[in-house]
Specification:
There is one protein chain. The protein is an all-alpha fold. It has one domain. The chain is elongated. The N and C termini lie far apart (about 45 Å).
């Protein structure tokens, strides 16, 4: 199981970008978990800044409903 467990993935923050994907990458990195990092860890680990897309169904649903309410159903 990742070091963050379900904790970081439980956050749902809408409207602003967060650093949660970055923190997940850091705490799940093998060097970090082994305690083998130095102050140059971030400079030496560019993969920490590659984030996978998230599926945020709630925001997609709210956006769709808002669009239908404002613009009507286009179908």
């Amino acid at each position: 199981m990742p070091a963050d467990g379900p904790g970081l993935r439980e956050f749902r923050i809408r409207g602003v970008k967060t650093n949660i994907p970055f923190v997940e990458n850091v705490v799940n990195h093998p060097k970090f978990r082994a305690g083998e990092v130095t102050t140059s860890f971030l400079d030496e680990s560019p993969e920490l800044f590659h984030f996978s897309g998230r599926t945020d169904r709630a925001t997609k649903l709210l956006s769709y409903l808002g669009d239908v309410i404002l613009n009507g159903n286009r179908k």
